[in-house]
Design brief:
The chain is mainly alpha-helical and 110 residues long. Helix content is 56%, strand content 9%. A 3-stranded mixed sheet has the order 1-2-3, covered by helices on one side.
């Protein structure tokens, strides 16, 4: 996505897998950017409640104010860039294996 001009500073993850610190750590390492996870165990439901609260308020109440009152804290996991280099090497191996597999398919189809 970066090649298409998108720039990410961090990724927010919530849901069942976000409860695993190992899962979050691996994703931070692979992507090379911090992963943020809400401390609320049901962040998706909280987001729905915040949206509902915002829709019920007067127009003068800003969404950021509602977020400040209802939102909780979060944890931030920073990547280990030495591990990112390892994952990049593994990805390059995967790409080579994929290219080989496509070549084998072509050989067998002929």
């Amino acid at each position: 996505m970066e090649e298409a001009g998108y720039c990410f500073h961090d990724v927010v993850m919530c849901g069942g897998l976000a409860k695993s610190s190992l899962y979050l750590s691996i994703h931070a390492d692979v992507m090379g950017i911090p992963v943020v996870s809400p401390s609320c165990s049901e962040a998706v439901l909280l987001g729905s409640a915040i949206s509902a609260a915002a829709s019920c308020q007067k127009q003068s109440v800003q969404l950021l104010g509602i977020l400040a009152r209802m939102g909780g804290s979060c944890s931030r996991i920073h990547p280990d860039l030495t591990v990112k280099r390892f994952h990049n090497k593994k990805y390059n191996v995967f790409l080579k294996l994929l290219d080989d597999q496509l070549g084998y398919r072509k050989m067998m189809a002929d």
